[in-house]
Amino acid sequence: MSEGTSAGLHDDSDDPGAGAGAGSARKFAASGKGPGRVRSAMTPIPRTSSFYARSWRDYLTRRGNDDELPVVRPTVALAGHAFVDEIVLAGFRILRPTIDPQDLQRIERETIAAVTLSKQEGWIEQPATFFQQPPELTDVTLRAVASRRQPYQQLTFESGYQPPAGMPGRQRWLSYTANAHAHAWMLRHDQPRPWLICVHGTSMGRPAIDLALFRARWLHEQLGLNVLFPVLPLHGPRKRHLPKNAALPSEDVMNNVHGAAQSVWDVRRLISWIRTQDDQSPIGITGISLGGYITALVASTQDGLACAVAGVPVVDLVDLIASHAGAYPHTQVARIMQPAKELARIISPLSLQPQVPFEGRFIYAGLADQLVHPREQVQRLWNHWGNPQIKWYPGGHTGFARSDPVQKFLLEALLQTGLVERSRAKT
Q: Which residues 6+ apart lie within 8 Å of 53 measured at CB?
């Protein structure tokens, strides 16, 4: 049953008669280098105004319709949430490196070759077989960090992940030497306690940000959880001394494929390490944005988890990147889109069956979200997961951290699945 008090506040129109990938390609070419970046800096106000106008249209026309997205009266505060998201988007567009046209040609060649190999290996037909079973993690290094805000332990280990032999972009990925060293932040009790793995979003992977946004002190001290914060590939210390265009997610299709696969590999290895420390306590996982995407993938490849809480989750990286990427030749982008969409099937939670029991699946999302579209992204995961408990909160993508409804929803998820005792539930 869907919960929430907000509305389907996005323009869902498609270009009638457009060829495969053409609509996304036009979005792909929305901004870019030089004048395009100046335009990007000027877009938040007109884009927010357009959002507010569409919101009123939707509010007036969708009331009483059998739409799965809740509908409420738009407010200036809701538009404010959208405006903050638009500022974040403008910053991404302005600051990210622009891909050279030759790199676009390489991306096209690699993507087409990867589709061919994936069909030969059966990964397109059975995506679950693409995710390798990682070995048990036993060799880790722990270091106590006496931070003023929140003391924690830093856990490091060798990832050991390697892309499949013959997969395009394999050697480039392996050349990212800092990325081979995996990191995690940890808050752990002396006695056995349930574990919650918290997976960060894009441009995070630093302890001060990760611990603050997930409210680590509340989870650890008040709710009594052991909390583990893995650092995703190409983030935080795993990005040091790497090329600027080594990013996850990015327009580089194969980096997205390898990054998603290694993220799942590393989290599953951490789960195996937890089991060597404590084989009885329940383990849950939660993530935000890109971390919500990884959470959904782990929930579909790892058994034995008590719960999976996907926050403002991405489910389709190709559509996401196409919606927010820079200005490149329209025809070239359109050529990439079709094989990229086909290849994305092997790293999509929509292609996998969740291993977490139905009662352990939870989703929350903001219906003024301008980064991750509620209908095109979140609702698809909700439907694929069998319509589990979901919280639509009245805010944007970046508003989850300040949303009391989200915190109450997360707490209830942890209570329902036994990770937190009712006696600790006072917030």
A: none
